[in-house]
Amino acid sequence: MSDRTPTSAAERPATPRGEFVAGARTMVPFLISAFPLGVIGGTLGLASGLSYLETFGLAMVVNSGTAQFIGFKLIAEGAAWPVIIFTTLILSLRMLIYSTLLAPHVRELPQRWRLLLGFGLIDAVFFVAFDRIKGDEPARRKSMFYFGASAIMYVNWAIATVVGMVAGHLLPERLRDGLDFPMTAVFLVVLAGALAGWKIWTSAVSAGALAMLTLGLPYNLGLILAALGGACVGMACERIERRWFPPKPADPAAPPDPSDPARPVEPEVAAGAAGAGSPPDGPPPGAVPRGRPGEPVRAGDRAADAAADVDGR
């Protein structure tokens, strides 16, 4: 019987309930920040002309704040349903990237579990649970952690939507017109944090200019054209950088960096380091050589050496 204590995550005993609770507990900071947005979403649903049931149903089926806000905006403007669906799909393409990164780590799970986890995939859940999903733990344990994180966010959004519908019904009509501005401010903050490098700046400016030029198109089709145009400009900038500004190769004539661990060691330095702890091959400093090389030491020489040692003590 072994007395070894389990140390790795795969060896520690854990129940599905414990993993579920751990995932839900991890999302507490995101619950606080997402709740006000859910309240605004519920209010906008009623302001767009939808009923209580339609507002709540759309929020629960879509499970995406971005798609929900854009959908309410298009509904209020009288857009056709194909336009609304296509627009929300374009704005949710990042979920395809998230799913591609998660798929290899949940391949062992049944398809019904993967569909459930895919429905609960949002930005916050991905950023929190991705490191756990790609670990070496069993797939069932990782999935329960992920499911706990997504479930608590889903319930939080549902409660916030109900609160928003109740609050929106009580608010005067003149106060409902600017309720969509907080979501616009959130997107601006996210966009400002992503503007790093000339390629992203060029893509963002091009998309913004194209959106202004196509502002008069019906059903907000200019938004879709601006998104596609910005993506095309970004791809063109990538090609231009690869062709006209390739990365400079390393200069072989440049002096090596002293802090580089892969720097080759000079022969003199290596020889000095190797001989630092070894005794010297020749006589000690100040020693007087006796006799010629190859000749035996005479008895008189030995006596003189012994007398010199006694005098030096």
Task: Tell me the layout of helices and strands.
Elements lengths: L15 H11 L1 H20 L4 H11 L2 H12 L4 H11 L2 H9 L8 H9 L3 H11 L5 H32 L10 H14 L3 H16 L7 H24 L22 H8 L24 H14 L1
Overview of this structure, please?
By secondary structure, this protein is mainly alpha-helical. Among the domains are: 16-174, no CATH class; 195-246. The protein contains 14 helices and no strands. The model is unreliable at 1-13, 267-271 and 306-313 (pLDDT under 50).
In short:
This protein has 313 residues and is mainly alpha-helical. It has 14 helices and no strands.
Core attributes:
single chain, 313 residues, mainly alpha, disordered N terminus, disordered C terminus
- The secondary-structure class comes to mainly alpha
What's the overall geometry? flat
* Low-confidence parts: 1-13, 267-271, 306-313
Number of strands: 0
Oligomer: single chain
Distance between the termini: 66 Å
Query: Order of SSEs, N→C?
Result: HHHHHHHHHHHHHH
Q: What is the rounded Rg?
A: 36 Å
- Count of runs of 4 or more consecutive helical residues: 14
Sheet having the most strands: none
Level of helix content? 55-70%
Question: How large a portion of the residues is in β-strands, by DSSP E?
Answer: under 5%
Mean of all residue-level pLDDT scores: 74
